[in-house]
Amino acid sequence: MAKKNPRGLGRGLGALLGEPAEPEAFSAPVAAPAAAESVQNVDRVVELPLTSIDPNQDQARRRFDEKALTELSQSIGEVGVIQPIVVARNGDRYTIIAGERRFRASRMAGMETIPAIVRDWDEHRRMAASLVENLQRDDLNPIEEASGIQSLMDRFGMTQDQVARQLGKSRPAVANATRLLTLPEEVRQMLIDGKLTAGHGRALVTVPGDERKIKLANLAVQQAWSVRRLEQVVALGEAAAEPKQTPPRQPELGSLESMAREVFGTRVKLEGGMDKGKLVLSYYSADDLQHIWDVIERMKPEA
Q1: Which string of DSSP letters, residue by residue, matches 134-173?
Q2: What does the buried/exposed string (b/e) look like for 200-212 if buried means 16 or more CB atoms within 10 Å of the residue's CB?
Q3: Who wins on pLDDT, 138 or 17?
Q4: pLDDT in tens, 229-285
Q5: What are the distances in angstroms from CA 226 to CA 143, 198, 230, 240?
Q6: φ, ψ at 151 (rounded to 5°)
Q7: Pairing status of strand 113-119 against strand 85-90
Q8: Do residues 168 and 12 touch, judged by C-beta distance below 8 A?
Q9: Phi, then psi, of 159 in degrees rounded to 5
Q10: CA distance linking residue 3 with residue 300, whole number of Å
Q11: Contact in structure between 213 and 184 (CB atoms under 8 Å)
């Protein structure tokens, strides 16, 4: 049974790339990448010089884990690149569509060439395919994802419905993603750094005023709020987020409470301050109540 995509991308790379994500017949890559005939068949895997390949400037992903890159480069140094990257021809050079991590790691490993599949794609299709690849791999933080979606709409005049169909997402999911870009920069950075999730960001979008958004975001991080907790605070108002401050009790009130406990021989609770409050006596049986009665009777002034 095919593994269900956790991100809900119905189309997948296969629909955009026109082939399985892991092409067959990789065991015999074609050499001589400069020859025209070596790239005429776009389904063939060719060996391209790393020096002829450029990263995609429209790549939504902006952060690469250096430790993970180092580990991947060590693996590539040992066994080579298992899965070809996908590139688009750009004059006499090539632009990466999918596989920038493998490209970077190969350079770190000192490789001179890399297996690649060459596509004759326009800018729009290259950008959409790059975004889908990263979304499927869970490689993007919420702000990178939102920025990539927004770029598709801005640069190619696409509606949310069109982008949703292109990426295999629902229109509400696209709308919710792009709304994160309206958050203050400080809050967006928390999403980038992984301190807050996209769910936290969506809850904060509805909060009026940047200052309050930032304040609630900081509280959510400091107190490790779940998304549900943050939603409750947003719904109930800012006062719900503030811890209740109990004023310190005067020592005299504590002494009075202790004396009452000794006199009545039962649980006593004093609530309030020096100006007003209440003294609560508890009883747990008829005998307890009778004892309290007797004490009060003895305290009554004689007629």
Answers
A1: HHHTT---HHHHHHHHHHHHHHHT--HHHHHHHHT--HHH
A2: bbbbbeebeeeee
A3: 138
A4: 999 898 887 555 555 555 677 888 888 888 888 888 888 888 888 888 888 888 888
A5: 19, 12, 6, 15
A6: -65, -40
A7: parallel
A8: yes
A9: -85, 170
A10: 82
A11: yes
Q: Which of the residues 47, 100, 144, 185 is marked catalytic?
A: 100
Q: Which two tokens stand for residue 4?
A: 């269900």
Closest CA to 87 of 51, 60, 126: 126
Q: Give the chain's mean pLDDT.
A: 77
Q: Tell me how long the chain is.
A: 303
Q: Which of 132, 48, 57, 138 is nearest to 93 (CA)?
A: 48
Name the amino acid, one letter, at 56.
N
List phi, psi (to 5°) of 73. -65, -35
Q: Tokens 């060590």 correspond to what residue?
A: 74
Instruction: Please say if 271 is a catalytic residue.
Output: no
Task: Give the ranges where the chain is alpha helix by DSSP (H).
Answer: 12-17, 37-40, 66-79, 100-108, 123-136, 142-156, 160-167, 171-179, 185-192, 198-205, 210-222, 227-236, 251-264, 286-299
Q: To which residue do tokens 């960001």 refer?
A: 201
Contacts for 298 with CB less than 8 Å, ≥ 6 apart:
none
Which residues touch 23 (CB under 8 Å, ≥6 apart)? 43, 45, 83, 84, 117
Q: Is the pTM of this model over 0.85?
A: no
Q: What is the pLDDT of residues 27-86, one digit of tens each?
A: 333 333 443 334 444 457 889 899 999 887 766 555 666 777 788 888 888 888 888 888
Between strands 85-90 and 277-281, the pairing is unpaired
Mean pLDDT (whole number) for 193-197: 91
Predicted local distance difference test score (pLDDT) of residue 43: 55
Q: Are 143 and 180 in contact (CB under 8 A)?
A: yes
Q: What pLDDT score was predicted for residue 196? A: 94
Q: Rounded to whole angstroms, what are the CA distances from 252 to 68, 247, 270, 274, 281?
A: 63, 14, 11, 9, 18
